[in-house]
Predict the structure.
Amino acid sequence: MRVGLVMPVRRDIMTGGQLYNWMLVDYLRQQGDHVEVIEPPWRLYDPLNVVADNLSRSLFRRLVETPLDVLLQDEADPLFWV
């Protein structure tokens, strides 16, 4: 199965949520699934940033052009909250 996981990735700290996400990625890959991690920009929540991210052509293009069977989104990721 081809799985897409939309999650913000912070390189400076590892949160419990990020650790869980990476454990999920590892588990799915061990089961033979292809996992594509899709990283929206990481920034503090601001409604204007969310709107700008939702309208990002590069992110939209990546979501449309990546062949996936299922798309998962980290619930803490405000990307699609608008």
The chain has a mean pLDDT of 80.
